[in-house]
Amino acid sequence: MTTEELKPIGEDASLLLVDDDEPFLRRLARAMEKRGFAPEMAGSVAAGKAIATARPPAYAVVDLRLDDGNGLDVVETIRDKRPDARIVVLTGYGAIATAVAAVKLGAADYLSKPADANDITAALLAMPDELPPPPENPMSADRVRWEHIQRVYELCDRNVSETARRLNMHRRTLQRILAKRSPK
């Protein structure tokens, strides 16, 4: 996406970053600051909601799954306090249902991790009536499958037998998949 297709950041460049992965949060804050934003970081749902209530940001990047709850609660708080805010939801566990929920609550876009600062900036600054460009480096089919299996495994409280049953997969096959490293 070229700079002509992006709307300008504007006078209010406040950006709320909510993620419980502290190294990622710091890297993203530095990268977004270089792009003209004024980032403020939060490592939890509670901290994100407190900042959104006290100083509603013009832009926000919120992780979906946080240690203390669901990032969609932060999205909802931002929407209540500042309806014109541009919000991007990030997640390592991409699913259609959560993407729909994020957009219904007012997120401008939904990106799968790992998303780089350029993708996030493009999503934040894209015109509201335009579709964002396709990702430069989309996840491979093997990676999407692995992410889905990991998500179901986490939702089943890391119970291999229950996960295998829900995925209609043999338990030993699932154990071999879980023992391997994630595909690129």
TrEMBL record:
GO terms for molecular function: phosphorelay response regulator activity; transcription cis-regulatory region binding. GO terms for biological process: regulation of DNA-templated transcription. Pfam families: Response_reg. Transmembrane segments: none annotated. The modification 4-aspartylphosphate is found at D63. The keyword Transcription regulation applies. Keywords: Activator, DNA-binding, Phosphoprotein, Transcription, Transcription regulation, Two-component regulatory system. InterPro entries: ActR_PrrA_rreg (IPR047772), CheY-like_superfamily (IPR011006), Sig_transdc_resp-reg_receiver (IPR001789), WalR-like (IPR039420). The keyword Metal-binding does not apply. GO terms for cellular component: cytosol; protein-DNA complex. NCBIfam families: ActR_PrrA_rreg (NF033791). This is Photosynthetic apparatus regulatory protein RegA. It comes from Aliiroseovarius pelagivivens. The lineage of its organism: Bacteria, Pseudomonadati, Pseudomonadota, Alphaproteobacteria, Rhodobacterales.
